[in-house]
């Protein structure tokens, strides 16, 4: 019987830190140029690391959170107690 022993992985902390610092330097407001630039950067970086089937997919977006979710979210309950509720 053979025993499976996974390869030992030693992360390159300096390279990981450099990648995170580069991504943090890009302003990524939702659906803006910085978000697209960071996606393109990540795609390029993954290809550099040897991944082959990498792509950035386009998507449609709402311009504001309120338009996307405001109409479907129920209002918060009133802080006033409702009529007929027992007093605290």
Brief summary of the model shown:
The chain contains three helices and no strands. By secondary structure, the chain is mainly α.
Structure description:
- It is a single chain.
- The protein is an all-alpha fold and 88 residues long.
- It has a domain of 33 residues.
- Helices cover 39% and strands 0% of the residues.
- It is extended and about 70 Å long.
- The model has no long low-confidence stretch (mean pLDDT 80).
Return the average pLDDT rounded to an integer.
Answer: 80
Structural class: mainly alpha
Unreliable residue stretches: none
What is the CA-based Rg, rounded?
24 Å
What is the percent of helical residues?
25-40%
Shape: extended
Content of β-strand? under 5%
Q: Please tally the helical runs, counting DSSP H or I stretches of 4 or more residues.
A: 3
Secondary-structure element string: HHH
* DSSP E strands, number: 0
The largest pleated sheet is described as:
none
Cα separation of the termini: 69 Å
Give the SSE layout.
Layout: H1 13-24, H2 33-48, H3 65-70
Brief descriptors of the model:
extended; mainly alpha; 3 helices
